[in-house]
Structure formats: C-alpha cells, structure tokens
Amino acid sequence: MAEIRRNYLRGAEITVVSAGGASGEPGRQLESVVEACRTALAEEGLSKVDVALSRLWMRDRESAAALSDQRERLLRGEFRSASSSFFSRQRMSGEGVVAVEFYAVRPLDRSTRKIVTFDPPRRYAHYLAVDDWLFLSGMAEEGDTMDAQFDKAFAQVEGALDLEGLTWADVCSASLFLQRGQATPDWMLERFRLAAPVQPLFVSFEVVDELANTPKHLEIEIIAQRSRANDIDAGVANPIGLEVFAGLLPSISVSLLTLWRWRKR
Hints:
The chain has 6 helices and 12 strands. α1 runs parallel beside α3. It has a 6-stranded mixed beta sheet. Strands 6-7-8-12-9-10 form a 6-stranded mixed beta sheet, covered by helices on one side. β9, α5 and β10 form a beta-alpha-beta unit. The protein is α+β, with helices and mostly antiparallel strands. The chain has one domain: CATH 3.30.1330.40.
C-alpha cells in the first residue's frame, strides 16, 4: 500500500506517492511497489503522465543488479521523468530492498510536458518541464575532488535553468544528497549557500550510503516554477532557514544542531 502526501510550493500542490518493498525477489518488489504507487495516483485522479520526478531507493548493488530489467521497463520507460537514485539501508523496511517516490503535478496543459535529455544522451533525463514547472534530475558529476564534483553538478543545474529561461529566483526547493563519509554536512550546505545567488525557500539535505553512479559522491536536485509578479524579489537573497519542505524528504539525516550552527554563521 502506498503512502500519499501533499506538498505545497508557492501555493501549488505536488502530490507525492511512495511505497517500499516488503519481501521477495528484487524485481518483483519493484513491480509491486510501482503498482501500489499507480493505484495511489489513480485515487488522486492522476496517472503516469502526471509524474514529474521519481526517486528510487535501493538496499545495495546486488539488489540493484537483480531489478535492472524492471527498472528499465518501468522507471526509464513507462514512468520516465526526471529522476534520482540512491543506496540507503535506512530507507528499507524488513526484507525490503527497494522503495519508490513519485512526485506528480496537475498541469493546466499536459501538452506542455517535455522530457529534455542530455547531449550526449545519458540513461536518465536531464529534466522534465510542464506548464511553468521544472523538475531537475539529481545532478551528479565525476571529479578529482569533492569541490570539483560540486562545481560540475552545480553547472548542470544552471544549464537546465538557462535552457528554460529561468533563474535562481524561480527555484522553489533544492534537495542535497551526500555520500556518507565523503564530506561533512556543513561543507555541502556552505558550498550551496555560497554558489546559489538567490537561496531557495526550502532546502533539504540527506546523507545516503552511496549514489547509484560511482565515483560520484554528491547530488543536487531542484524544483523550480516560473516566478509570478510578487513571489520572490530576485534582487534579495533569501537566507536558508530551518524550514524543510514537509514530506520532500521524510527523514533528514543531519541533526538540527548542525543546521542551527550552520545558519548562525
């Protein structure tokens, strides 16, 4: 059975459906999880074409290899959208080896939906745009140092914004992911604070066991919506506060003390 929650950015509703595997062969777990999410979407009057972002959580690389065919068919095929994928044992329950989150929106005009690929193409999309929304896949790039990886990932974020004629004033939320043991939460949060010319209203952070793609160790994911007249003054940087987009990440693996110390700087 899938969980349904509703998040709100600038007054617009995003429906999030999520489910986790319980037991059994990894591929069948993924099929069962996706079917549960499909049913939950239908209950909300939504379908696969309304899914703008998917997140795939896996227990380990062995289970990831065992569900690769189902992943290709379902998440890179039928439910193709912006996407991110991680390894996190903390996200698993019991004998489960997989969990999925779908972020769906109710577009005014479904014909505006487009999936933009990388050049040259990668297995996952660069971003999905629909109406005035942009959902960016988690950006992660290789680099000799963590600073190099951050700079390259951040450049991909800015590239997507430029392609859609958006600016940092249009970014509603940012989700930051960091591989455990590669750097400190303070480092990544500070790098993001210094890099983004206008801070999103909501910033969330999570430590994961690994990113799906190695040797990449950090990932930046954003949701943007074209600003309306009195949303955000692009000339004023909004400091990152302790607000966290409710339900964007159900478990934030960084202590409130760390966040408080970082914000006080």
